[in-house]
Design brief:
Blueprint: H1 2-17, H2 24-32, H3 39-42, H4 45-48, H5 50-56, E1 64-68, H6 76-83, E2 88-94, H7 102-117, H8 119-122, E3 126-130, E4 143-149, H9 152-158, H10 161-171, E5 172-183, H11 191-197, H12 202-211, E6 215-220, H13 248-257, E7 262-268
Helix pairs in contact: 2-5, 2-6
Length: 270
């Protein structure tokens, strides 16, 4: 079965990238529909809108792209094959230093297992380990794009948000792009409450990016969710996909809300 799957994936990738007339839209469509993707991930496409998000960020198959802390690989399953032939995909995760949260070790091991299961997808992936206080995010010099999905609140909590944004700016070529998706707090929410809830204000995120030299190029409502009231006792983690500490009788209500309301921001390094 494994040999058959690997053969299919090789044929699948070969077919995709042997079609010179295919538009970027079609290429993204084919990768998103690929059988290599985890069914638990694909069921979240309706909330995370990968095609629309990557198109808004201008991600095309020849780009060099670093994704920051990709975790279990939700976007890696799309970006690695999309960039495999003509671009470069960099999976950037924390150095597993002594004392690091065991969760990050679990995540890294899980993604390595995914790579072993699908070598024809991940054989050209570049892996970078970085220190959050002084991140070095590329093995081969400046790149075209940095992507980060739903991470800013973690860096705000850890006190490393400024150093991370400096790292993003430093790794990009002139004209390079930072694409950022983050849970969106109500305007005026105090920083302490942002960190506690996992929702950050657009104003805070934009000011942080601009403070290190980025220019806000565009906003999108691709990942907006007006059903999200942002007033849950357990913060954003009460929503899908976690439903953390939600009683059984309340789960249907929370599932109906969906995933969080998110800002989608595109910054440029001039």
């Amino acid at each position: 079965m494994r040999i058959t799957t690997i053969l299919f994936l090789n044929l699948f990738l070969g077919f995709i990238f042997s079609q010179p007339a295919l538009s970027n839209e079609k290429l993204i469509d084919q990768v998103i529909m690929g059988e290599h993707r985890d069914p638990n991930f694909t069921m979240r496409d309706r909330y995370r809108h990968p095609k629309e998000t990557l198109e808004f960020f201008g991600i095309t198959p020849e780009k060099s792209v670093v994704e920051i802390t990709p975790g279990f690989g939700w976007y890696a399953e799309i970006l690695a094959p999309l960039l495999r032939e003509n671009g470069m995909y960099i999976y950037a995760s924390y150095k597993l230093n002594e004392g690091i949260n065991p969760f990050f070790i679990k995540v890294e091991n899980a993604f390595k297992e995914k790579m072993q299961q699908h070598p024809s997808i991940y054989d050209k992936l570049n892996w970078v380990h970085f220190e959050a206080k002084n991140p070095r995010l590329s093995p081969d010099g400046p790149i075209d794009a940095v992507l980060t999905f739903r991470n800013v609140h973690n860096w705000a909590q850890a006190g490393t948000i400024e150093s991370m944004f400096v790292g993003f700016y430093d790794v990009l070529k002139p004209g390079g792009m930072l694409g950022l998706v983050e849970h969106r707090a109500k305007p005026g929410t105090p920083l302490e409450n942002q960190i506690k809830s996992g929702y950050m204000t657009e104003k805070f995120v934009i000011q942080m990016a601009e403070s290190v030299g980025f220019r806000l190029d565009a906003k999108s409502e691709i990942n907006a969710n007006p059903k999200d009231t942002k007033d849950y006792a357990g913060g954003v983690w009460n929503l899908l996909p976690n439903l953390r500490n939600i009683a059984d009788e309340d789960k249907d209500k929370m599932v109906d809300i969906g995933e969080s309301d998110r800002m989608t921001l595109r910054f440029v390094k001039d």
